[in-house]
Amino acid sequence: xxxxxxxxxxxxxxxxxxxxxxxxxxxxxxxxxxxxxxxxxxxxxxxxxxxxxxxxxxxxxxxxxxxxxxxxxxxxxxxxxxxxxxxxxxxxxxxxxxxxxxxxxxxxxxxxxxxxxxxxxxxxxxxxxxxxxxxxxxxxxxxxxxxxxxxxxxxxxxxxxxxxxxxxxxxxxxxxxxxxxxxxxxxxxxxxxxxxxxxxxxxxxxxxxxxxxxxxxxxxxxxxxxxxxxxxxxxxxxxxxxxxxxxxxxxxxxxxxxxxxxxxxxxxxxxxxxxxxxxxxxxxxxxxxxxxxxxxxxxxxxxxxxxxxxxxxxxxxxxxxxxxxxxxxxxxxxxxxxxxxxxxxxxxxxxxxxxxxxxxxxxxxxxxxxxxxxxxxxxxxxxxxxxxxxxxxxxxxxxxxxxxxxxxxxxxxxxxxxxxxxxxxxxxxxx
Length: 431
What we know:
The chain is α+β, with helices and mostly antiparallel strands. 40% of the residues lie in helices and 19% in strands. The chain is elongated.
């Protein structure tokens, strides 16, 4: 959600910022709605003040025996009451229209985000590692995986497309990746582990920006709850409708959860393998910070995700997404793309975004500046900034390990950092 004062103060600048995001904003329509709402609020406030004044005068009139004047003013008060109800209803209706308009607008891009219509406008920021020379023609993960315990056919029979069964050592490797990532982020980067709900209410998804615009990409239960598309929803909303002491910030949370996505906009894309599934595991990173901490925290979070790839020895590159390729709530996003030898290309494995105060306004999450604790006049609350990132997507990391650590015989070597989680297994062989 946006600060309505920014729109009022400079509607042309606000409209230009949204055009960078590929969104047209009708400043005239907004101005008309806003003017009529403020007029309704002022009319209700004026009528209320007049009613209160007359109520006092009525008491005085009756106290001195001027019954006729008192009864006349009572009729005026009754009329004012009807006017107040009508103006408050008009104010509420226009407010709902403005809220609906603002709820559909994406966050404004940070100044350093490049303009662009799609992924072709993204910029390579850094590259780590070299694509390995395996000495043979590498295979893609789904071809290798079928002999290693990856069963797409059985999953298709039970659940349909975009699901998989993992069996035996390959299932253990998948579990090892998730456990390693959690340990790495909590022990090396100071995140607090959380086991969050996987079902959330509509208000939570509105808070992080998935609703109302992206309902088609979500799964909803029969009782009106939603399966989370990412633990970002549960973790970020943990502080919804709160005023946090500044001394408590930053807050850093991480969780390993199943995630559920309908992939409504991905028809025909990545239908093979584990790249794009309806159910997948992901280690999520979420930070709640002050505005002054926001940019540094974005770099810190991105490095926390990159360090997992480096520990696993997986070549990657960091991309700064352009305005047309960022998510709805993001002000700036770094994508991490891992090298897949079988596909001979880089594929996204993590997105780390700063959302500035966009989600905080939707969740009504603020902080109280520390000056209040020093006996100074109580300062006004401010909205927090929120950040989220993948540290990492477990299934896609499994794909990357399979393809980068494959042997000519179709086996997969276990990366050194995962050995403590694998019970002595250092090679997963076709069975």
